[in-house]
Design goal:
Blueprint: H1 12-28, H2 42-46, H3 64-84, H4 89-116, E1 140-143, E2 146-150, E3 167-171, E4 174-177, H5 183-195, E5 208-211, E6 214-219, E7 222-225, H6 237-247, H7 254-261, E8 274-280, E9 305-309, E10 325-327, E11 336-337, E12 341-342
Parallel strand pairs: 8-11
Antiparallel strand pairs: 1-4, 2-3, 4-12, 5-6, 6-7, 8-9, 9-10
Length: about 350
Amino acid sequence: ERVALLPGLNPPHWEFGHLIWFHEFWVHRQGLASHPSVLAQADTLFNSSEIFHDDRWQAQIPSIDILMNYFSDVMERTFTIVRSGSISPEQAYFIQLVLYHQDMHNEAFAYMWQSLGYAWPLDFNLSSVAAQSSDLMPHYINFAKCHLQSGSLPHTGFIFDNEKWQHEVLVPEFAISSHAVSNEEYLSFLEAQIVSGASSVEYQPAYWKKEGDIWYERFFDRWQELDLKAPVRHISAHHAEQYCLWSGVRLPTENELSLLMASPDTHWVPSQLWEWTCNTFMPFAGFSADPYQDYSAPWFDGKHRVLKGWSSFTPGYLRRPQFRNFYLPSRNDFFCGFRTCFL
């Protein structure tokens, strides 16, 4: 089935080819276009820095059999390196890079399936996508003024270049919600806007609908009655800010969310969603790009927004307080939500 040309999606076979190409390019070609690919025209077809997003729908993608053979060849060469027992630090870095890159695309496949309303195709407990159950009553957690070590140190495991380098920042006193904003709380805001004359869909989260007096949310291919206690998801930063304005609160800063997420979760409840901050995605002082120069630097454009946390589709090793995700604040197709602050 053909995937529609939408800004947040890629044609699945193109995306699969891109993953293999990226793996081969960094692990086996040392990041050099002068080292040829085993697949003809791979650089032209699958280098995301070179082929424009909309052109990917028109590209002459090889058949899935050819892509599977390409995948098997690249993976077997990597297994040979791993089995050799003599991996260089450079090889170890790039093997980790391509694994993390693939995990990020796996999450992109998940929100593509959500966007398209497809049945979830894997053996995966979808109930685990819900926020963790907790007996903790929602409340605001007070943080005194403190110093935060923001970013990551060298030689502390694999990191991405936008985490470089650790530096101390002073975080003023603040209070942050123990829970992400719930469907019930957001619904109160939405209904208030409708009463004020707004269109019923103007502030509505993606994948909500109302039939009679009942609100429903689509989760992949299933329409389910809205779970009022669950965190609201598929919310843009713009709509999150409108909710905050209505509620007399604000979005947290990147540093405030980092402090919360570094604290024991006996005091707060993870939402299983990427959470918006009010901060534009920008480099730390002294930033320098890593070999994959297009990971961060092109997105320091003043338009992208930092998110912290993780979704249920994020692997455990990326669920770190230092990790910085980033999206345009208008996006709501991925698994995102928000919590609030005051002071």
